[in-house]
Amino acid sequence: MGSHTCVALIEAGFTPIILDNFSNSHPAVLQRLAQITGRAVVCEQGDVLDTPWVEAVLRRHQVAGVMHFAGDKAVGESVAQPLKYYRNNISGAVSLLEAMQAANCQTLVFSSSATVYGDPASVPITEDFPRQHTNPYGHTKLVIEDMLAAMQVADPAWQLGVLRYFNPVGAHPSGLIGEDPSGIPNNLMPFVAQVAIGKRPFLNVYGNDYATPDGTGVRDYIHVQDLAQGHVAALQRLLQSGESFTVNLGTGSGNSVLEVVKAFELASGRPVPCQMAARRPGDVAQCYAYPALAQRLLGWRAERTLADMCTDVWRWQSGNPNGYQ
Ligand code: UD1
User: Is residue 28 part of a domain?
Assistant: First the structure.
């Protein structure tokens, strides 16, 4: 998401500075960003937990606003290693906010997640739905949202944009940047892509007895480019209005696992064999957004289709079978 948002920021006339420790990304992305945008993007290598370093970087570049993507996001891993999540996500956010405060930079766009809705009572989901968590990863997003609200009470000068992502998928249409999961992908789209290219023999479909049209789980898949443009719109809104907000970033419609598989087969021209498997613990039947608030506040809406998402993932996957390696 960070690299795709860099492209969108540059296209909108901003000058992004990347802060990354490359724990879950690859330095090769910098060269790819230069290829796409025709510009070298400044990158500072370090850790968000290093507060004095973050403060120094913010001061050195006279940063006007921050987008915080530096969180871990694998649900299963968070159950196995909760402290990793509490340290990187929560302590990381505390460190960043302290650095921002010290550097007099009080504009932040935060990557939250639809995971804060837990198992929603109904769909589509509006921002005022009750929040709950079902795993440590989700808990960290909830805690950070609460922390931001407390910061706002303590100092109304903070300009905070909380973005609750639904299911980001896709890749840049150039095929130069995309998702490069290490090991076996946890998420549906990268797994489907690896089956299509022959890296894995079949997809396990986790449950076909949900109360959904075809029995498989329904999610709101949103193209990473739409999501990246949502970040730019959020930053612009914060800088113009000075008011904080929390919005859903989704398309407003859901697709089942089998619909995604079919769309991917069509986009790639490759078969994606499936095997029915038991439900995955913690999964919900349906999760999709009511995205009207983002449209009203940010003047933003998702435009790309599921077919676009699959086509772009396939271009990335087939052009970079080993990711950034
Ligand atoms: C999960 C997290 C979410 C996180 C997101 C991105 C929860 C409940 N979900 O979303 O917070 O932001 O990942 O990292 O916390 N599926 C299969 N076979 C597979 C993989 C997935 O059938 O091999 C199905 C799942 O059961 C689900 C759908 O595909 O119905 C999407 O799964 P996935 O891509 O993992 O995303 P979520 O679980 O929705």
Answer: yes
Copy the structure tokens of residue 278: 């038991």
| CATH number of the structural domain spanning residue 9 | 3.40.50.720
Is 137 marked active-site?
A: yes
Quick check: is 52 in a domain? Answer: yes
Is residue 96 within 8 A of residue 66, CB to CB? The reply is yes
Is residue 94 a part of any domain in this protein?
yes
Q: Could you tell me the residue range of the domain that residue 152 belongs to? A: 2-319
Q: What is the dihedral of CA 273, 114, 26, 29, to 10 degrees?
A: 90
- Whether 324 maps to a domain, the answer reads no
Mean pLDDT score across all residues of the chain = 97
pLDDT in tens, 114-139: 999 999 999 999 999 999 999 999 99
For the segment 277-310, what is each residue's pLDDT rounded down to a tens digit? 999 988 999 999 999 999 999 999 999 999 999 9
Atom index in ligand 1 nearest the CA of residue 206 equals 22
- Total domain count, the chain: 1
Nearest to 244 by CA among 126, 114, 154: 154
Q: Which of 254, 2, 247 is nearest to 124 (CA)?
A: 254
Q: Name the burial class of residue 281, with classes exposed (0-12), middle (13-18) and buried (19+) by CB atoms within 10 angstroms of its CB.
A: exposed
- Residue-wise pLDDT for 190-199, tens only, equals 999 999 999 9
Report CA(84)–ligand 1 centroid distance (Å).
20
Q: Ligand 1 in contact with 264 (CB < 6 A)?
A: no
Q: What letter represents residue 22's amino acid?
A: F
Catalytic residue among 137, 165, 210, 288: 137
Tell me which residue has its CA closest to atom 7 in ligand 1: 115
